[in-house]
UniProtKB/TrEMBL annotation:
Keywords per UniProt: Hydrolase, Metal-binding
Organism field: Amycolatopsis ultiminotia
Classification via InterPro entries: Fumarylacetoacetase-like_C, Fumarylacetoacetase_C_sf
GO molecular function, one term: hydrolase activity
The keyword Endoplasmic reticulum is annotated on this UniProt entry: no
Name of the protein described by the UniProt record: Fumarylacetoacetate hydrolase family protein
Residue ranges annotated for the Fumarylacetoacetase-like C-terminal domain, each copy included: 81-281
Domain of life assignment: Bacteria
Keyword Coiled coil attached: no
Signal peptide stretch: none
């Protein structure tokens, strides 16, 4: 059972994706029983998630629709924080003539950067060299503060596919321009599904996941999580010791390779056992 948001009457609506298809949450959780979260982010905490799972299990097959007929959008739009991690795969650091940092090279992105599947990445006028980067995203599920690496994954609700964008030419002007180069609108695409961590781990540890950046149908850069300098549990622990992490916060764990994109390109992030995120690229005129 996975979380998503689909379009209903022109607005995003929280939904569940499972073997029978897609069902909107408002069609299986009774109105007025208890307050229902407004979007998918509100269902990832333990109590709402348990209540939702029970409601979906009771639902009849007639309320489900074929996922192929649905229009998916970003699972939610307003996390309290989005953390990005730079140069986390050794090979990608080498691409940029950099060495992998001993501590995570992290930065924060605003929620104005969020788009969902098939919402176009917009290359801004200020940039002539924008890259797109497939990444594994970690979704925090409960308040996380000062946790050790050994317990860090207990605070991760699940994972998702991400396309993170960078105005690389701006970053090359000065490494202090990292925030600027990462925060243009449409520079954070995620979804279409949020996958519970327990589902992913049933098929193997996170370190076995392969992350691929695909442009125009060609797999351009791939690597496994095992080749990260700072692996998921380490990233959660590190950032929790800096500041609290809240339910719905996202940690985008770094890319195996950044690919320069241009007008009309089709871009995808592919992670077996998690999903595939697709969108297109347009250039701001």
């Amino acid at each position: 059972m996975r979380l998503a948001s689909v379009m209903r009457d022109g607005r995003p609506t929280a939904a569940v994706v499972e073997s029978r298809g897609v069902v909107t949450i408002d069609s299986v959780v009774p109105d007025g029983a208890t307050p229902a979260p407004a979007d998918a982010m509100g269902w990832i905490e333990p109590a709402p998630w348990t209540r939702l799972a029970e409601a979906v299990a009771r639902a009849g097959d007639d309320v489900f629709t074929d996922s192929a007929a649905e229009t998916f959008t970003a699972p939610y739009r307003h996390p309290r924080k989005i953390w990005g991690i730079g140069l986390n795969y050794r090979e990608h650091a080498a691409d940029l003539s950099e060495s992998a940092p001993e501590q995570p090279a992290s930065f924060i992105k605003g929620d104005h950067t969020i788009i969902g599947p098939d919402e176009p990445i917009v290359v801004p006028r200020q940039s002539e060299r924008t890259t797109s980067e497939a990444e594994l995203g970690l979704i925090i599920g409960r308040l996380c503060r000062d946790v050790e690496e050994s317990e860090a994954l207990d605070y991760v609700w699940g994972v998702t596919t991400i396309l993170d964008q960078t105005a690389e030419d701006i970053l090359r002007l000065n490494p202090r321009f990292l925030t600027r180069s990462k925060n243009f609108p449409s520079f954070f695409c995620f979804g279409p599904e949020l996958v519970p961590l327990e589902e992913v781990l049933r098929s193997g540890p996170l370190e076995t996941l392969e992350v691929s950046t695909i442009v125009n149908g060609t797999d351009r850069r791939s690597n496994t999580v095992a080749n990260m300098t700072h692996r998921p549990a380490s990233l959660v622990s590190f950032h929790s010791k800096m500041m609290p992490l809240f339910p719905g916060d996202i940690i985008s764990t770094g890319t195996p390779g950044a690919i320069v994109v241009g007008d009309g390109d089709r871009v995808a992030a592919s992670i077996p056992r998690v999903g595939q995120l697709r969108t297109s690229v347009t250039v701001q005129r």
